[in-house]
Amino acid sequence: MNQRERLTKLLLKQSLISLLKEKNISQISVKELCTSAGINRSTFYLHYANAYELLEHVEQEIINNTSAYLDKIEAGDNGTTYILAFLDYIKKDEELFTVMLLTSNENVLFPKRLLSEILKNIDSQLQLNVPDRLKRYTYSYLVNGSLAIIQEWIQEGFIISSNELAELIFSLADHSLLAFDTLEEK
């Protein structure tokens, strides 16, 4: 990809994020995106078929970039380090994550997809001790609970520290995993 292409895609991404603050994806036209980005429609169509495809591209880019960032983190045997790195990453790009995790852009699946990917990375780092038959339920619980906590944190303007929130999420997850050990003993 050449520099002009990268710039075009960056401008379209920024335009989309800006427009998503005000309206749902179904209400955003290609014309609006192009006007906001300062490019013509034919340039848009060289890269994307419609606004939904652009949104999918942005979502996948966020997942890939977040995973790549977290892959560099050495969690050791403590997941708090990993969760803290993720929270700091969110805080660093506050505008993007506020729009993508809080704004109703008719794609409620994206936040769960992102958190599921993060949880997979944590599991590969820490080897969570969850029986295979219960893994799907455990992950669903951890993803939904963690997502709710993170969304609340963003909505409140990050009023508690990343470190404190990471410890809370890890502690809640750890306690819920202990419940599975108890179930296995029965």
TrEMBL record:
Keywords of the record, alphabetical order, are: DNA-binding
DNA-binding region residues: the ranges are 29-48
Q: SUPFAM superfamilies in the record, alphabetically?
A: Homeodomain-like
Q: Which residues form the HTH tetR-type domain?
A: 6-66
Looking up InterPro entries in the UniProt record yields: Homeodomain-like_sf, HTH-type_Tx_Regulator, HTH_TetR, TetR_C_Firmicutes
* A GO molecular-function descriptor: DNA binding
Where does the source fall among the domains of life? Bacteria
Q: What name has this protein been given in UniProt?
A: Transcriptional regulator, TetR family
Lineage per the UniProt record: Bacteria, Bacillati, Bacillota, Bacilli, Bacillales
